[in-house]
Amino acid sequence: xxWTAPINSKLTDxxxxxxxxxxxxxxxxxxxxxxxxxxxxxxxxxxFAASKIGRKWGLMSSAIPLxxxxxxxxxxxxxxxxxxxxxxxxxxxxxxxxxxxxxCAEIATDDSRGALGSFLQAFxxxxxxxxxxxxxxxxxxxxxxxxxxxxxxxxxxxxFMPESPTYYLLKDDRxxxxxxxxxxxxxxxxxxxxxxxxxxSDVAASMERTATIGDVFRGSNFKAFxxxxxxxxxxxxxxxxxxxxxMTDIFKASGTSLNPDIATIIIGAVQVVSxxxxxxxxxRLGRRILMLISSCGTAIGAGLLGMFFLLDHNDSPVVxxxxxxxxxxxxxxIVTYCWGLGPLPWAIISELFPIEVKAVASPIATALxxxxxxxxxxxxxxxxxxxxxxxxxxxxxxxxxxxxxxxxLVLPETKGKSFQEIQIMLGGGQKPEKA
Length: 435
Fold this sequence. Notes:
Number of strands: 0
Keywords: Cell membrane, Glycoprotein, Membrane, Transmembrane, Transmembrane helix, Transport
Pfam families: Sugar_tr
Subcellular location: Cell membrane
Mean pLDDT: 86
Order of helices and strands: HHHHHHHHHHHHHHHHHHHHHH
Helix content: over 70%
Shape: globular
Largest sheet: none
Radius of gyration: 22 Å
Oligomer: single chain
Organism: Euphydryas editha
Low-confidence stretches: none
Structural class: mainly alpha
Family: Belongs to the major facilitator superfamily. Sugar transporter (TC 2.A.1.1) family. Trehalose transporter subfamily.
């Protein structure tokens, strides 16, 4: 996902481009956007794999498109190969964003589910920092080899991880569920029996209700669905991808003498530190309070960026005296985004849906996320060039304000609640009806 940041300059290099010629601005823009296209379809493949071959093997199977795409990147000599690689990467990313939250939610205890769900965003930022840190200083091909090594390490290491107990119970294999739950909890069969009974009762209730796409739009399922879709809308329309896309321009606008590569590494480090705070506090403070803080911080950050670029657009003399503002706003925006809007939609989506609906609804919400991501990534530069960058940031700021009020008035607090308690809460205090 972060590969383009250090690679774009290598592809546009007139002397050392692996393509034998410098890539055009339009080609770079398309290459950045095409991962989103693949990621629109990946969730449906991931949801199918999770229900048919299991959460573990669904995640393992995502290594196949990752391997293929890294090899294509390593041998690419023209842009169509890179376009294809980006789409294939996107399919893998879509699979991972669907199955990983599902797997984490199903192996977690009620009081650690938020933390485990938040690790998805935290480790994404760690991957960003890795590629930001090594990309500018090693060759194009070595970056691809490093990517291949990481996929290989994942495939080997995850082979030894247990399956989700929920999947075994869905397949009516109680012994398999007991065995893997014992491995996950580090306890004997007797030690996990009580928890196994609770999971089994949830699964048994879910199996009495077969889910179709139509079921997603009924009752408490629809409430979970529109909450999930609204969360991913605010996540993408907070403008995070636009902010990261324009990071170099923002640093240049601030008048700082800092090398853009070094500035990117610093921002990457800020993202990592911020993202690893959320797993530590999400199960103490709760989801709603972190979403409120995050929405407020990103609204202020986007608003300040919009104000700065509006003044700059109008050639205001004030700009020189507030050249520190873009960097300050950028750090505020990214730090607060990483506290809530970044990680929590994925953690919350994995909690809201009943087991039988999750495999149908989660891919739709994840695909929506990537459609929105494509729209923001592709159209923001056009809006900025035609009517000014400030307009985009003001739109993002308004969306962040909307996220604040949505979190305050609509978002349910799921901290420490079991899946059954969450379903009762979504149903307005009523237990879910049996089909």
